[in-house]
Design goal:
alpha+beta, globular, binds adenosine-3',5'-cyclic-monophosphate
Length: 141
């Protein structure tokens, strides 16, 4: 019997730019090929109040109004992924925020040229994963 701790979960959003560009399959495929499990997946359009809740820590930042306009501009795909150290693994796979600077081989590094329209959001810590999964998928709580 393994004595390792239970797998973690993280929340991922495949953002409206990725949906518009037809990159959902490419992005989901990368996570699947890595060996991560998809515990939930839904297409949804984020409305204004929900954006404020999801991005609670950013609502006062100067980049928030255009970020909110972008994130509410069309459908996105929300997923819960699970696997060993999934929060850190997914953050490494998506790369740094600015697609122009993200390393080649990462999702943003290979496919984005923007620090706003950067294709993917992923929880950045166990606390944010818990909060974001409860917000997007309350039925998983
Ligand atoms: P995300 O991982 O969803 O978390 C916050 C988002 O804000 C980030 O990805 C980017 O889409 C956006 N963002 C962060 N910093 C900036 C910035 N300086 N200018 C524009 N957008 C930003």
């Amino acid at each position: 019997m393994s004595s390792s701790s239970p797998d973690e979960r993280t929340l991922v959003l495949i953002k409206p730019d990725a949906v518009r560009r037809g990159l959902v399959g490419e992005i989901v495929s990368r996570f699947e090929r890595k060996g991560l499990r998809i515990d939930a997946m839904v297409t949804r359009t984020m409305h204004a109040d929900f954006a404020d809740q999801h991005y609670a820590e950013h609502v006062d930042k100067p980049f928030y109004p255009p970020l909110k306009a972008f994130m509410t501009s069309g459908p996105l795909v929300a997923l819960v992924l699970s696997g060993d150290q999934v929060i850190e693994v997914v953050r490494a796979m998506i790369g740094s925020t600015d697609g122009r600077k993200a390393a080649a081989g990462t999702i943003r590094g290979d496919l984005s040229l923007s620090n706003r329209e950067n294709l993917v959001h992923a929880s950045d810590s166990p606390d944010s994963a818990k909060r974001e999964i409860a917000l997007w998928f309350p039925e998983l709580g």
